[in-house]
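pasting for the record
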Amino acid sequence: MIAIVDYKLGNIFSIKNIFLKLNYNVVVTSDPEIILNSKIVVLPGVGAFDVAMQNINELGLAKVLKKVSIDKKFIGICLGFQLLFDESLENKKTNGLGIIKGKILSLKKKIKNKIVPHVGWNTTYLRNYNTNKKYVKLLNSKYFYFIHSFYAEPKNSKEILTFTKYENLIFCSSVLKNNVLGLQFHPEKSGMNGIKLIKNFVDK
């Protein structure tokens, strides 16, 4: 069972459709028991960090997701990726889930000559990961679809899986911490590269 966490914000059904196309047993849910009993948990999302955390807390899911991050395969996508971190400065300073140490910062303060949000296809570059995991290798020099106005700055550089360049900024585009994979980009909007990435993470 794959549980896609429904915290009343984001692009849940486009992600669900990818898993269905790959013939996985998937459910969209905000039920803590179902989430805890699933083999793999997906935290998606598009929207504001502070609203997302408010919804997660009101649904009683913060502790559930922290527990999931310890012993389940866990994927955070776009806003779901940012929510993994300690805090964000979007709108107002807001505490995140604290699964990955670090902050979420504004692209506008770094990007001078290009449009923010960062929208469209861009390349992920693998950060010296020595691993036999195929899904990790699938991230090296590949195009994925991005749409975001904020970026992650992990405290532990060893948890940075890939980086991506946008104008003068080199930012963290994915993280890997044990069984937790965080993706700033949208694999569900990234064609075959995204499909292969999801399939290999789930199957391996």
